[in-house]
Amino acid sequence: MRSRATRTDGPGGEEANSRAARADGPGEEVNSPETRADGPGGEMDSRTPRADRSGGEENSRTTHANPPGDEIRSRATIAPDRQGQEAVGRAATGDRPGVAARSRAVVVDRPGEHRLVSGAAPEPGPGEVLVRVAAAGICMSDREVYDGRRDAAYVRYPVTPGHEWSGTVAAVGAGVDPALVGRKTVAEGFRACGVCERCRYGETSLCTGGYAETGFTEPGAFADHLTVPARLLHPLRDDADLRAAALLEPSAVIAAAVRAGRPRPGERVAVGAGTLGLLAVQLLAASHPAELAVVDPRAARGEQARQFGATAALSPGEAEPARGRFDLVVETAGAPTTAASSCLLARRGGRVVLTGMFTPGAAGIDPVHLSLSQLEVRSVFGAPSSAWSEAVRAFGLGLLDPAPLITHEFPLERFGEAVALVGGGDPEVGKVLLVP
Question: What does pTM read for this prediction?
Fold first, then answer.
């Protein structure tokens, strides 16, 4: 397991990287422990050979596999007893007879300790669906859970992580349309109550009914199957690439950021070139900006951003003369200095959207500059239902293609190896997937 110097984003958020690799500007931080930059960094998304998925035993010293048949021993990882509730029969279970008899799941019992367990597949309760997981992304918030650095209010151990995922509906519970069986899908992570004032206003990411999220307080997708409320589903097209669709959760966060930034045709826009930044480039390019610049110290990231529609790629040093130039700046790193430096890139009267999750001690925004520049500053935490809908629609139309950001894939058995890569400092590591 890598150094605790690796920091993370907050609940459901995208990764920010090693403290030793802090970066300036709106982008993601540099992963390499040896690299210290004044600008935004991020994971390297270059398409290195993917990890062998042929098997290989989990070699983590903290992995303790249960004997076959062991159940996940926690309300956070096993479906509650639903005796007496209506069961789902063969007519609503997809292409196999009944709900799958066995299912595996990664369980993090406590920080630094995980197991791969096997037991009965969960059954969907009333209003729920059972999903066969196709792929699940690992981000820094998952690493945060594993390392024990997530705020205690936002995680419940033991837990099966996995909030970025895609899959196919395998069964439905009582009261759910059986036509959903066989549909490719993703789902919102936040279990918003739907009845509080903020939810009624459409701001489901601001739900006041209490925090609950798939992969943090509820069983997540580092498993063969998971159950989720059917109301949270966002069904995909029949020809959807489920591997790429696993990145629709961070895409929804970026869709929320773009909505908050209100880009207009002909504007000058700056953004980072990490995983979140490269997703943002694709959505921002659809608004037809006059200039779409990425700020990142790595030339390869800049080149990839150009392929997605960026018009310029600047190093942190090259970005300094451009301070005060941009109508909109989308910050995506959560590094100690990126909130302040993003505000410096914006023109007077410009707009800044902060999507990174910052830790205590981060450099604050100069209130004098903020006041005199008349900046509009917004922040984004998670994604409301409307942003999910926009991300899924953009994906279906081909305006958003997360697939090139994926560099590594692992089976569930190699979770320890996979999570160690995330934020581990390797510049060749982009998005890491678990594929059951």
Answer: 0.77
